[in-house]
Amino acid sequence: MTAIIGLKTLYKSNYLQWLEETIKCLKHRQLADIDYENLIEELEDLAKNEKRRVKSLLEQIIRHLLLYQYWDLEKPRNANHWAAEIISFRNQINEDLSANLRNHLEDNFSIIYSNALDYVKAKTQLTNLPELCPYTLEQILDKSWLP
Q1: What value does the mean pLDDT of the chain take?
Q2: What is the pTM of this model?
Q3: Could you tell me the CA-to-CA distances from 23 to 6, 17, 49, 98 in Å, in that order?
């Protein structure tokens, strides 16, 4: 019981040490000593952050695909930059994309597209942008595909 109180106090005063002690408890199967309340909170935050990160990367890819495909006025000057950004964001998202995170992207695809569309409309003032995403998730994630 005192180990748990110690870990709870440590969580508030020295997060990294709390993390190291929690890892030790898990490795040594000292489950009675674990600060479950804070551990669960941290794991939930970790999951939210990962979901937020892949959503942000997907939105960035879509933004750049829309710019690449539809902003004809700026395309001669910026096409290479947009293509390079697409590659960079694809590499980042594909590096850690699990089945669970992919499902999360599929479930939130229309919202992510809508956010990307809002950004591109504001940046470009274009009126010819499609209201529904013209790309599939597979195309967006495909390292060699461009519209």
Answers
A1: 94
A2: 0.84
A3: 15, 10, 20, 23
